[in-house]
Amino acid sequence: MIAVIINTLAVVVGSALGLLLKKGIPERITDTLMKGVALCTLYIGWSGSMKGENTLVLILSMAIGAVIGEGLDFDARLNGFAQSIEARFQKGGEKVSLAEGFVTGSLVLCVGAMAIVGSLQAGLSGDYETLFTKAVLDLIGSMVFASTLGIGVMLSAGLLFLFQGGIVLLAQVISPFLTDAVIAEMVCSGSLMIFALGLNVLGITKLKVLNFLPAIFLPIALCPLIDMVM
């Protein structure tokens, strides 16, 4: 878990630096930076989604995941949590909501190839190299995101700790099912959500991205099932 803790601290430190930088950046530059961050988010999501090899697994994962996510309404629950904190601490007149920063930071920092694969490596073999590399990247990434999206990005460090820590702890249990194909489809599903998030930040869509979250884990069951049928 040491790598997960270091990764979490990197997000906190990076976000703090980003918040300090934000105070000296003019509003027009902040607006342009936010659009730039959104475009980078689209690129990260698109490039990661190309790692998938079975379109049927992706379609079924997203469809079933959406049904589960809508039933449990993860988006409303996490946004409600962020907005309750926002109501207490956000200053009047701030353009960017704490909830937007929290959701964006949570998905971009948690739901990527390095987060999933690195956590699995840490749990299965004690190999921390990927997560240490991710910590350096997240330090820079969270600084950029926090400078445009605010303190909500720092709060996403808590979800990152729970998500990656949970995978590390569960790795030994689910390791027999984690083939290269399964991991590729998990990364593909997660990356597609990151792409959708970029569309939201640009204001093109208003998708409830968090309600697709179960789709990340469904390939664990769907890949072997489809292999048996086909």
Q: What do these coordinates show?
A:
It is a single chain. With 230 residues, the protein is mainly alpha-helical. It has one domain (2-229). It contains 10 helices and no strands. It is globular, with a radius of gyration of 17 Å. The relative contact order is 0.22.
Defining key terms:
230 residues; 10 helices; mainly alpha; globular
Short description:
By secondary structure, the chain is mainly alpha-helical. The protein contains ten helices and no strands. It has one domain.
Number of strands: 0
Distance between the termini: 39 Å
Return the structural class: mainly alpha
Topology as a string of helices (H) and strands (E): HHHHHHHHHH
Radius of gyration, Cα only, in angstroms? 17 Å
Quaternary structure: single chain
What count of structural domains?
A: 1
How much of the sequence lies in strands comes to under 5%
